[in-house]
Amino acid sequence: MIIVPVKEGENIERALKKFKRKFEKTGAVREMRSRKNFEKPSVKKRIAKQKAIYVQHLRLQEEQ
Fold it and tell me: Is the pTM of this model over 0.85?
Protein backbone atom coordinates (compact mmCIF):
# COMPACT_ATOMS: atom_id res chain seq x y z
CA MET A 1 0.00 0.00 0.00
CA ILE A 2 1.37 3.38 -0.98
CA ILE A 3 1.20 6.10 1.65
CA VAL A 4 1.85 9.74 0.80
CA PRO A 5 1.90 12.02 3.84
CA VAL A 6 0.39 15.42 3.04
CA LYS A 7 1.64 18.30 5.12
CA GLU A 8 -0.68 21.04 6.24
CA GLY A 9 -1.01 23.68 3.55
CA GLU A 10 0.64 21.46 0.92
CA ASN A 11 -0.83 21.60 -2.56
CA ILE A 12 -2.93 18.54 -3.50
CA GLU A 13 -1.37 18.46 -6.99
CA ARG A 14 2.05 18.10 -5.41
CA ALA A 15 0.84 15.18 -3.27
CA LEU A 16 -0.71 13.57 -6.35
CA LYS A 17 2.60 13.95 -8.19
CA LYS A 18 4.41 12.20 -5.30
CA PHE A 19 1.85 9.39 -5.39
CA LYS A 20 2.26 8.91 -9.14
CA ARG A 21 6.04 8.82 -8.80
CA LYS A 22 5.88 6.20 -6.02
CA PHE A 23 3.37 4.16 -8.01
CA GLU A 24 5.64 4.19 -11.08
CA LYS A 25 8.57 2.97 -8.98
CA THR A 26 6.60 -0.08 -7.84
CA GLY A 27 6.33 -1.24 -11.47
CA ALA A 28 2.73 -2.41 -11.06
CA VAL A 29 1.54 -1.09 -14.42
CA ARG A 30 4.55 -2.52 -16.26
CA GLU A 31 4.01 -5.93 -14.68
CA MET A 32 0.28 -5.87 -15.42
CA ARG A 33 0.94 -5.11 -19.10
CA SER A 34 3.53 -7.89 -19.34
CA ARG A 35 1.13 -10.41 -17.79
CA LYS A 36 -1.71 -9.38 -20.09
CA ASN A 37 -0.21 -11.25 -23.04
CA PHE A 38 1.83 -14.37 -22.35
CA GLU A 39 5.20 -14.43 -24.05
CA LYS A 40 7.10 -17.66 -24.43
CA PRO A 41 10.56 -17.71 -22.83
CA SER A 42 12.14 -18.38 -26.25
CA VAL A 43 10.47 -15.25 -27.65
CA LYS A 44 11.70 -13.20 -24.68
CA LYS A 45 15.26 -14.44 -25.29
CA ARG A 46 15.04 -13.65 -29.00
CA ILE A 47 13.81 -10.10 -28.34
CA ALA A 48 16.52 -9.52 -25.70
CA LYS A 49 19.17 -10.78 -28.13
CA GLN A 50 17.90 -8.50 -30.92
CA LYS A 51 17.92 -5.54 -28.54
CA ALA A 52 21.50 -6.29 -27.46
CA ILE A 53 22.62 -6.50 -31.10
CA TYR A 54 20.90 -3.20 -31.87
CA VAL A 55 22.47 -1.42 -28.89
CA GLN A 56 25.90 -2.81 -29.75
CA HIS A 57 25.47 -1.63 -33.35
CA LEU A 58 24.57 1.88 -32.12
CA ARG A 59 27.63 2.01 -29.87
CA LEU A 60 29.91 0.93 -32.70
CA GLN A 61 28.48 3.65 -34.93
CA GLU A 62 28.94 6.19 -32.15
CA GLU A 63 32.65 5.30 -31.83
CA GLN A 64 33.31 5.77 -35.54
Answer: no
